[in-house]
Amino acid sequence: MKIKIVVAALLCAGCADTDPFATFYVPGYQTHAGPLPAYSGPQLPPSNTDPPVEYVQIISAEQSKEFAATIARQGYSRIGMSMFETNWGSPHREAAAAMGRKLGADLVLYVVVPAGTKLQSVLHITYQPGQTYSGTTSGFVGGTYGSFHTYGSSPGTFHTQYTPEEVGRYTHIVGYLTRRR
After folding, report:
1. Which terminus of the chain faces fewer neighbouring Cβ atoms within 10 Å, N or C?
2. Number of domains within the chain
3. Could you give the angle at the alpha carbon of 159 between the alpha carbons of 157 and 164, nearest 5°?
4. What is the pLDDT of residues 43-68, one digit of tens each?
């Protein structure tokens, strides 16, 4: 009985829409980002506004270290980061800003790195519309002339098909920063 409950919970966990920014969040003291120091003060209160989200294109490890040193010289320290892989080819700035607001961040840095492709089952849904019909019949019935009208429609149908396709994968690295006070 206990095993059935655990299996059901694991299966349902995969069904729910999860926020990868929160799911894969790691506090700053658990991550190493080179010259960017970790914030070590008390937990910051949530902000009333979304922090700015800056998209950064990183093409090399050296560039990443130089950028982190520049941010550190500007007085920023890391609260934490979220890192996950998905098929999103572009940043989801609003979701990153919402997570930054929850953490009390002053700045959110967002990096998207191509991670190759993956063969994945992709859902395709098509809709076949129904048909509408109408008709009129006229004639004599029992010596009286009359007409009979018919009309109606049949419902449409949805068809679902999964096909294997190569899907682009991207690593999203999101840093939540605060300015040293």
Report:
1. N
2. 1
3. 170
4. 888 988 889 999 988 888 888 888 88
How far apart are alpha carbons 140 and 134 in whole angstroms?
20
52-81: buried (b, 16+ CB within 10 Å) or exposed (e) per residue? ebeeeebeeeeebeebbeebbeeebbbbbb
User: Which residue range is the domain that position 59 belongs to?
Assistant: 17-116+168-179
Looking at the chain, the whole-number percentage of residues with pLDDT higher than 70 is 86
More confident: 147 or 68: 68
What letter would DSSP give residue 45? P
Cα gap 36→56, rounded to integer Å: 15
CB 158 within 8 A of CB 81: no
CA pair distance 26, 98, nearest whole angstrom: 16
Q: Which residues pair with 124 in a beta bridge?
A: 161
Q: How many CA atoms lie within 13 A of 158 on its CB side?
A: 4
pLDDT in tens, 68-112: 889 989 999 999 999 999 988 889 999 999 999 999 999 999 999
What angle (nearest 5°) sits at the alpha carbon of residue 131, between those of residues 129 and 132? 130
Alpha-carbon span 43 to 41, nearest angstrom: 7
Residue 98 inside a domain? The answer is yes
Residue 147 lies in a domain: no
**Structural domain includes residue 144:** no
